[in-house]
Amino acid sequence: MYDWTQYKAVRVLTRLAREGLQTDQIVDDIISHVNDFRYEAQMPTFYFLSGLTGNKKVASLLQRHFLENLEHDPIDAFDIFENLYRCSPDVAMRHADFLKAIARGEGLEGRSPLLDGAIGTTDENGKQEYHWPDDEPVEEHHQLRAAIFYYRLNPQDEEVNRLLDHWEVNHPEENVRSYIGKLREEGQGEG
Q1: Torsion angle, CA of 191/99/114/109, rounded to 10 degrees?
Q2: pTM of the full predicted structure?
Q3: Rounded to whole angstroms, how far apart are CA atoms 22 and 11?
Q4: For a FRET experiment, which of 60, 116, 141, 184 has its CA 20 to 30 Å from that of 80?
Q5: Residue 1 binned pLDDT confidence (cut-offs 50, 70, 90)
Q6: Mean pLDDT for the chain overall
């Protein structure tokens, strides 16, 4: 099977498993083959599997891949962490400090936005600029994602609040500054 058919098949199978149809068999089959999938099929597979909330086998698989990806690509690890949290928040929370490391920019030094799908252009002065296809800001993108995720888990964390304070005032994108302000207002309203 090629990667585009693999993840589509996994999507259907995990939907059946969520409905209680041969859940154990489906999970076992996917887990036994997912390591052979190409990256393009493996990452969506992790997402679809994460919908099987509370499944210990899926949580174990996601945690293993999260830890393996910490070694070579912290952003892939972050994406898998999000899936792990969706499947098993208790297991994911054991690794939540990883989010603060990403928010500080650890492991992101020299990472090109092109690696993550940004579009590069050159302005009239020859300066390279990057943007996402949906115009989401590129500057400190992953750091912001991680800080916001962690803030939603623990809005009282001092370090994450210091980072958000800085971005709320200094980020070059007005929509980012505004979003952080609204997020924090919501967080205070919940507290």
Answers
A1: 130
A2: 0.84
A3: 15
A4: 184
A5: very low
A6: 88
For residue 4, the tally of other CB atoms under 10 A from its CB is 12
Cβ proximity of 42 and 5 under 8 Å = no
Q: How many helices (H) and strands (E) does the chain have?
A: 10, 2
Rounded to whole angstroms, the Cα distance separating 99 from 75 reads 10
Q: Which amino acid, residue 56? A: K
> Up-side HSE of residue 21: CA atoms within 13 Å toward CB?
6
Residue 2: the pLDDT is: 53
Rounded distance between C-alpha atoms, residue 115 and residue 136, angstroms: 16
Q: What CA–CA distance (Å, rounded) separates 20 from 11?
A: 14
Predicted pLDDT at 183: 93
Planar angle of CA 82, 87, 88, nearest 5 degrees: 95
Distance CA 22, CA 52 (A): 13
